[in-house]
Prior knowledge:
Elements: E1 4-10, H1 14-25, E2 30-33, E3 45-46, E4 55-56, H2 57-70, E5 74-76, E6 80-86, E7 89-94, E8 99-107, E9 129-130, H3 133-136, E10 144-148, H4 152-162, E11 167-171, H5 179-187, E12 191-193, E13 198-203, E14 207-212, E15 217-218, E16 222-225, H6 233-239, E17 263-265, H7 276-308
Parallel strand pairs: 1-2, 1-8, 2-5, 8-17, 9-16, 10-11, 10-16, 11-12
Antiparallel strand pairs: 3-4, 6-7, 7-8, 13-14, 14-15
Domain FAD/NAD(P)-binding: 5-283
Protein name: Thioredoxin reductase (NADPH)
Pfam families: Pyr_redox_2
Amino acid sequence: MNRIYDVVILGSGPGGIQAAIHASRKKADVLMLGRMHKSSLFWAHVENFCCQLKITGEEMLETGKMQAENFGTEIIEEDVLSILPQGKHFQLTIESGRTFTARSLVLATGTSRNRLGVPGEKELLGKGVSYCVECDGGFFRNEPVAVVGGQSAAVGGSVTLSHTASKVWLINDRFDVAPELLAQAREQGVTILENAEVAAIEGENAVTGLQLKDGTRLDVAGVFIELGAKGVLELAATLGLELDETMKYVQTDKKQRTNIPGVYAAGDICGPPLQIAKAVGEGCVAGIEAASYSKRLKTAQTDADKETD
């Protein structure tokens, strides 16, 4: 028989884990889906989270997973393939083909970071390759680094890095930002390489260099890939979710409610700032609210059943 959960959480990053902890503490029957290593936090090194000194993202997530399980959360490390509304419930199908029904959902899938798709990128992830200047920039103090991307995240990231890194290259085939921001990068000493593309990231146990398609080689210790994030149009299409004006993020209110009753969202999927603290706070609210919604739904169903007896 298809099992019914009070709360099903999509995503096992900081927002999803915090939602699971709080929903389970509310005595809800909670299922959390997703692979932790897909969270951008998993590969990060954290030093700007309240009350926490330097720690790896992997350590944070492993601890959070243990906490959620201790409070009763069931965890399945598979991704959701489909979500279909089913009356006031939702039917989910995961990779293995198993299906579940949820009274409420918490969407905490984060945003998918765009990849370069070049040799060395995957192999050196967390070893000098990063997708977050704010997360990992501090670990390259007095080191030469490169930022790849042509929009505000990349150009702004190069400016941030210029204050700590020994040398910063900003690389892209074209730039689509306000002229003032690009000028600021130049003023900060950032070397801007226009009409340039990355061919490969070099290194074995750590990044040692960057190879461009024109044959140029840069000696760098870090490569920050800031190509933007994919939107959530696929999810919105199946559930009818309302997105923000950029069509990239799910629109929520202060209780993390979406426009669909019973569907909540938390973390990067709700938009910037893409920070752990924000994800955890929103996950807390979403988990509590989803558990309360599920309880009200069950109570209403019980009362309706009594009336028909």
